């Protein structure tokens, strides 16, 4: 989409007034969709490539959902706050008009539990499926509306999910927005340390992070693209027959500590098993240990930091 058209679409919702309360640091409107009037951004999360689960129909039971859409791509989640004088209906109608102007097709829309289902609000706000837990304060009442829209053109495919709710007890109307821009994952962004680089780091620091080891989500299954990193680890061990190392598995802090300790141990075990299957590697030189999220190298507050913390490390015995 041309920049001029993007700017026009974003401006359709923007009012002339300046928000009385500043947006949270690091946040911004999405280029495809501006804000309503004097809304301010109270919550924000953006990922270059992630998974998003969006409701695509009524939800009667938040724990048994079959109306949902699983998407991957660039994901931006924004929480807006408005004066409650702007009803959920008023805000929703403005967004609907803006989306239509931007050639989006509405796939699903609803209002209140009668149309959306009695489990809809809980699924969207409270389970950590659509929005992360603690993303922004939620208001549970019947004054809510939601819609899911899609646009597919030469520039790609984009989905927009919007949830509007009136929180009259706190004199505000809240808007939660997700934009998913579907695009192929760009692989080849991680450079694998060769055996000599691994040895140099061990000599200097006594430990080294092994980039390029990938596991299936919530699993100890090693992905096929890990083959090169495993081979470089094996080459290190072949070139230094006296070397003995701990294979240490690390996770982020999502989920319970007990579960992540077990998962990180299984992942460390899987690496030892994969190395032992390669020629010239004696499993007796490898000691698998899982430490869960107990040794982070970045903040677990965001996706980028959590990705760094999920890692495999070699440590000298």
Question: Quick recap of the structure?
Answer:
With 317 residues, the chain is of the alpha+beta class.
Protein model, in words:
- It is a single chain.
- The protein has helices at 3-11, 88-101, 112-116, 120-125, 195-205, 227-239, 257-276, 303-309; strands spanning 40-55, 68-83, 105-111, 144-153, 156-167, 172-182, 207-209, 245-250, 286-290, 311-316.
- With 317 residues, the chain is α+β, with helices and mostly antiparallel strands.
- The protein has 2 domains: 3-182, no CATH class; 195-316, OmpA-like domain (60s Ribosomal Protein L30, Chain: A, 2-Layer Sandwich).
- The strands form 2 sheets. It has a 6-stranded antiparallel sheet. A 4-stranded mixed sheet has the order 7-10-8-9.
- Strand 5 (156-167) and strand 6 (172-182) form a beta hairpin.
- Helix 5 (195-205) crosses helix 6.
- The relative contact order is 0.11.
List keywords for this structure.
six-stranded antiparallel sheet; 60s Ribosomal Protein L30, Chain: A; 317 residues; four-stranded mixed sheet; alpha+beta; elongated; 2 domains; disordered N terminus
- Give the biggest sheet: 6 strands, antiparallel
Helix content: 25-40%
End-to-end C-alpha gap: 56 Å
Average the pLDDT over all residues and give the rounded result: 88
Binned strand content: 25-35%
Domain OmpA-like: 202-317
Pfam family, one: OmpA
Subcellular location: Cell outer membrane
Protein name: DUF4892 domain-containing protein
């Amino acid at each position: 989409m041309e920049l001029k058209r993007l700017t026009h679409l974003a401006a359709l919702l923007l009012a002339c007034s300046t928000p009385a309360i500043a947006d949270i640091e690091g946040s911004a409107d999405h280029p495809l969709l501006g804000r309503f009037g004097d809304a301010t951004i109270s919550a924000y999360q953006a990922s270059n490539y992630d998974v998003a689960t969006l409701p695509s129909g009524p939800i009667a039971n938040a724990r048994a959902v079959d109306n949902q859409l699983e998407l991957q791509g660039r994901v931006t989640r924004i929480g807006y706050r408005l004066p409650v004088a702007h009803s959920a209906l008023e805000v929703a109608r403005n967004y609907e008009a803006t989306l239509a102007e931007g050639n989006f097709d509405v796939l699903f829309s609803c209002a209140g539990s009668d149309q959306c289902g009695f489990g809809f609000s809980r699924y969207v706000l409270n389970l950590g499926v659509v929005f992360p837990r603690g993303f922004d304060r939620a208001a549970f009442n019947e004054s809510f509306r939601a819609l899911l829209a899609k646009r597919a053109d030469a520039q790609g495919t984009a989905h927009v999910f919007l949830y509007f709710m009136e929180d009259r007890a706190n004199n505000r109307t809240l808007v939660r927005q997700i934009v998913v821009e579907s695009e192929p994952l760009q692989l080849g962004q991680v450079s694998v340390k060769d055996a000599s680089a691994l040895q140099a780091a061990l000599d200097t620091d006594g430990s080294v992070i092994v980039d390029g080891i990938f596991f299936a989500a919530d699993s100890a299954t090693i992905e096929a693209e890990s083959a090169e990193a495993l081979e470089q680890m094996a080459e290190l061990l072949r070139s230094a027959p006296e070397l003995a190392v701990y294979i240490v598995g690390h996770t982020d802090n999502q989920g319970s500590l007990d579960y992540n300790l077990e998962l990180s141990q299984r992942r460390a075990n899987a690496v030892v098993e994969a190395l032992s299957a390669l020629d010239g590697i004696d499993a007796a030189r490898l000691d698998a240990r899982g430490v869960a999220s107990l040794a982070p190298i970045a903040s677990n507050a965001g996706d980028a930091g959590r990705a760094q913390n999920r890692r495999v490390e070699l440590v000298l015995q």
